[in-house]
Design a protein that fits this description.
Rossmann fold, 9 strands, three-stranded antiparallel beta sheet, 287 residues, Pantoate--beta-alanine Ligase, Chain: A,domain 2, alpha/beta, single chain
């Protein structure tokens, strides 16, 4: 396994692989890798000749009030995980490498999908996400890129960007990986105090309840949302950012009735102290 920080060297190595006829899988991350990332990496290793993992905490997707300076990092542990999983290349650039000082002024923005859910409380976030993912796709030139379904809005936005811009990469969605008690794996879980970590179990319980109701035949959107909200608010340490039921393809709100022919996405964001956790369920009404 190689670790490279320079864009030009990554492009040169990937070019050699392509000339040799290798397929390339890519897992973009911000580091502090956990079992969720490992599942993406393993799928890429299984499906491609070469796998690249990027580790870059992208400043353009953080608002000034967010946790950029505190975002957890452990490059040594990340390197060990990648090496043990069979990764061929870690791309580990600096901020200056990705955003040269004084001469960066181009950004990518996907309209529509970035108006609701996390975008409301994180203005500018998805502009930063789309910009860095676009840059990484251009650098790595992978055949397939792997993203977790826990970040459902991010997955939808990136998929739309790839479709609209005719990008030569296939987006592979991968299931959410959870702790034994149901909490979705997240690098930010480390921020939780023991009391908050215990309280955070209510998020996955609410997700399971929403999914159960939809699968059981509940079609009133307000009832599904209220049931999830009521469950979350039983936990005093929980502060709801949003609870929504939307169309899983275009993220449009479902105001009244759940459509029988839709892909349903139930999504939540909940604060525990200063830590914001997201989770979701998906039900294919046609499947």
């Amino acid at each position: 396994m190689q670790t490279i920080s320079e864009i030009s060297k990554v492009k040169a190595l990937v070019g050699e692989w392509r000339r040799s006829g290798y397929t390339i899988g890519f897992v973009p991350t911000m580091g502090y890798l956990h079992e969720g990332h490992k599942s993406l990496i393993q799928k890429s290793v299984d499906e491609n000749d070469k796998t690249v993992v990027s580790i870059f905490v992208n400043p353009t997707q953080f608002a000034p009030s967010e946790d950029l300076d505190k975002y957890p990092q452990d490059v040594h542990a990340d390197t060990d995980m990648c090496n043990n999983a069979g990764v061929d290349l870690i791309f580990l650039p600096s901020v200056k490498e990705m955003y040269p000082t004084g001469n960066y002024s181009t950004y990518v923005y996907v309209e529509g999908l970035t108006y609701e859910l996390c975008a409301k409380s994180r203005p500018g976030h998805f502009r930063g996400v789309c910009t860095i993912v676009n840059k990484l796709f251009n650098i790595v030139a992978a055949d397939r890129a792997y993203f977790g379904q826990k970040d459902a809005q991010q997955l939808a936005v990136i998929t739309k960007m790839v479709q609209d811009l005719n990008m030569n990469v296939e987006i592979i969605p991968c299931p959410t990986i959870r702790e034994a008690d149901g909490l979705a794996k997240s690098s930010r879980n480390i921020y939780l105090s023991p009391e908050e970590r215990n309280a955070a179990r209510v998020v996955s319980k609410a997700i399971l309840e929403g999914e159960r109701l939809v699968k059981a035949g509940e079609r009133d959107v307000s009832r599904v949302i209220k049931s999830m909200e009521d469950l979350i608010t039983t936990e005093p340490l929980a502060r709801i950012d949003y609870v929504e039921v939307v169309d899983g393809h275009n993220l449009a709100k479902m105001e009244n009735e759940i459509c029988e022919k839709s892909l349903i996405l139930g999504a939540v964001a909940v604060f525990f102290g200063k830590t914001r956790l997201i989770d979701n369920f998906v039900v294919d009404m046609k499947g």
